[in-house]
Amino acid sequence: MRRLTALAAAAAALTLAACGQSSDKAADGASSKVLNLYTARHYDADQKLYDLFTEKTGIEVKRIEGRPDELIARMKAEGANSPADVFVAADAGALWRAQDAGLLQTVNSEALNAAIPENLREPSGQYYGFSRRARIVAYDPAKVQPNEVTDYAQLASPRFKGKICARSGDNVYNLSLVGALIEAWGEDKAKAWVEGVTQNFARPPEGGDRDQIRAVAAGVCEVALTNSYYFIRMANGEDAADREIASKLRLGFPSLDGKGPHVNISGGGVAAHAPNKDNAVKFLEFLASPEAQQIVTELNFEYPAANGAAPAAAVAPYANFTAHPMNVSRYGINQAKAQSMISAAGWR
User: Fold this and answer.
1) Alpha carbon distance 173, 184 (integer Å)
2) Which tens digit of pLDDT belongs to each residue from 282-295?
3) Count H helices, E strands: the chain?
4) Which of 31, 145, 233, 263 shows its CA 20 to 30 Å from the CA of 216?
5) Rounded to whole angstroms, how far apart are CA atoms 135 and 205?
6) 3-class DSSP assignment, residue 288
7) Would you call 246 exposed, middle or buried from its count of C-beta atoms within 10 A (0-12, 13-18, 19+)?
8) Model pTM?
9) From its phi and psi, is residue 204 left (phi > 0), alpha (psi between -120 and 50) or beta?
10) Digit-coded pLDDT (tens) for 308-347
11) Which letter does DSSP use for residue 63 in this model?
12) CA separation for the pair 184, 170 (Å, rounded)
């Protein structure tokens, strides 16, 4: 993995410090009405979540934003004096990095355990998913038949030589996908898949998921790896050009060993040294509530994570699938192996 240099870490710390922080302990040692949130999510919809949480609880959310590795580096540097109460990331692999660094603590919440399915939370309770996103494909139906993208293994076949677009190999979404393949297939088959997909690239990886989707529409490639919500957002957003692109393409939901598409999470965990632990648990429980789940799916076009929560009307047409039941913690556990395979294959 790319690591922050000392200079970059210092710059990140200065940037984050400007957002403000405090220990937020009341004079009597009890938690104040504050939550210090370290978040690697950057979606407009999240402000609605924070505002509603404050409205319902009276707890002010003090937000510190950054890339996952920046926030993890900051929490490490702060040590036991860290003001962080909750760490949030848009990928289970990033949450695992925080756990692996000893930056999260176990939470035993009946409300969370009842709301969030077992496979969408870390087994010991160190982090919980509150939204889901499938890592699937967008394709050009004029060039690709639906039955050609029903299984992830197909993407590594000669059929797609020079036909695939993807973002960089060290992107955590791709690392988690390969981590899931390692778990399901074993290292040898997963390695062969990574090599096959890399050989099938239409161009060197560049840009984000939406750039890959646009490349399909432009004829650069026929298939693009993408998270579901990027495509759904383009199909329902304010940008007319993106809506036009999405209208010409289709989403395919490859299955992993016939058990459904690979699904990742956005989620959060309570920081190891949280000065406001009670507030932190309340915040995670809030994210699993029906009101919060509705905001996540309606405003950011993600799939809800909580039991019984329904996808938004715009998301529902893309939600008719059964996800692979693998526990999301396995993605991070296999992350180092995934990175090694990706680097060795030349997936830059």
Assistant:
1) 17
2) 999 999 999 999 99
3) 14, 9
4) 263
5) 16
6) coil
7) buried
8) 0.90
9) beta
10) 999 999 999 999 999 999 999 999 999 999 999 999 999 9
11) E
12) 20
Residue carrying structure tokens 């692109």: 245
Amino acid at 117: P
Q: Contact, 198 vs 222, CB < 8 A? A: no
Integer CA distances (angstroms), 4 to 8, 68, 103, 331, in order: 6, 11, 17, 22
- Residues 6 or more apart from 105 whose CB is under 8 A from it? 126, 269, 270, 271, 272, 274, 277
Output the six-digit token pair for 65.
């934003």
**Among the listed residues 187, 175, 207, the one whose alpha carbon sits nearest the alpha carbon of residue 69:** 175
Question: Given this model, what pLDDT does residue 32 score?
Answer: 85
Per the listing, tokens 């062969």 go with 192
Measured distance CA(256)–CA(242) in Å, rounded: 29
- Rounded distance, CA 97 to CA 29, Å? 30
What end-to-end distance do the CA atoms of the chain give, in Å?
Answer: 11
